[in-house]
Design goal:
This protein has helices at residues 3-13, 18-24, 46-53, 90-101, 127-134, 152-157, 173-184, 232-250, 253-256; strands at residues 27-33, 57-63, 76-77, 87-88, 113-124, 138-143, 160-163, 217-218, 221-222. The chain is an alpha/beta fold and 257 residues long. The strands form 3 sheets. A 5-stranded parallel beta sheet has the order 2-1-6-5-7, with helices on both faces. The longest helix is centred in the C-terminal third of the chain and has 19 residues, at 232-250. The structure holds ligand 9WO. Residues 118-120, 144-145, 147-149, 163-165, 168-169, 171-172, 175 line the site of ligand 9WO.
């Protein structure tokens, strides 16, 4: 048997075949935005780059203007009831989701397909929601701009209205990057063998313990002695206590739940 036909037979069984992976395991992320260029490089680094190269995920940013039907490609309009600023129109957003996800009402999306609106009015994003998103087949993220998004998008189209925290941004794009990053690093195989998602912050409800590397003396700033002893049990105890102390100081809310 020649080398090429042996390789071909393995491929047909699907062990190394991306096309089979694509229909089963792969996460597809579609971002709807009026600034697709905003995302040009952010997904080209580190874990996300590696996950894309390994075909664990595809990420695409789509220009909302492509789904406008008027000759001026209007994505925004003035608010009913008056007030300053503009509101993103419902129609192009519904059309974009229809074409990217195959439906435009939340009850028509199959399980495994989530349509997310990033907005300060959403429920707060956390590690648990990141885990749910990582288990999806497709994530469609809608980035708002201007003074807001026509509320019919939140009322009937999206499955999740999500905030990454209590502050106002100039648009949903930075929040979409946060959500996509948190989900992708949780995909099976995204982290190298050197790192485990389960040993990091939040997996045990505490903040991470402090880290140090060489030199041991940095202009008089010392590394805690215990970390230099090689005594694994004592190091583990020190790390637990340091994590707890840091959580009490910076995030007491995590200890009350
Ligand atoms: C603008 C504004 C101006 C005066 C008073 C109140 C205001 N609220 C807003 C506003 O919410 N603008 C949004 C900007 C419109 C939708 C997109 N924008 C957005 C998304 N800002 N912040 C987010 C966001 C998304 C997810 N997590 C945190 C913030």
């Amino acid at each position: 048997m020649s080398r090429t036909s042996w390789f071909g037979s393995i491929r047909r069984k699907g062990f190394w075949n991306c096309e089979i992976n694509e229909s089963t395991e792969m996460l597809r992320v579609d971002i709807i935005t009026i600034f697709p260029g905003f995302f040009r490089e952010v997904f080209d680094y580190g874990i996300i780059r590696r996950a894309r190269a390994a075909k664990l995920v595809t990420v695409e940013a789509h220009d909302l203007r492509a789904w406008t039907s008027d000759k001026h490609h209007m994505v925004d309009d003035r608010p009913f009831g008056g007030g300053d600023g503009m509101v993103l129109k419902a129609e192009p957003i519904f059309a974009a989701v229809e074409s990217l996800a195959g439906a435009s009402r939340r009850e028509d999306f199959p399980e495994g397909r989530r349509v997310v609106l990033l907005s300060p009015q959403g429920r707060t994003f956390n590690q648990s929601l990141a885990t749910e998103f990582a288990a999806c087949q497709q994530l469609v993220l809608i980035c708002g701009r201007y003074e807001g998004v026509d509320e019919r998008v939140a009322e009937t189209l999206v499955t999740d209205e999500v905030s990454i925290g209590d502050y106002v941004l100039s648009g949903g794009e930075p929040a979409a990057i946060v959500v996509v990053d948190a989900a992708i690093r949780l995909l099976p195989g995204a982290l190298g063998s050197e790192t485990s998602a389960t040993t990091e912050s939040f997996s045990d409800g505490l903040l991470d313990y402090p880290h140090y590397t060489r030199p041991t003396d940095f202009g008089g700033l010392q590394v805690p002695e215990v970390l230099l002893t090689g005594h694994h049990a004592e190091i583990a105890r020190w790390r637990r206590e340091a994590a707890l102390a840091k959580t009490k100081r910076n995030r007491p809310d995590l200890l009350k739940g």
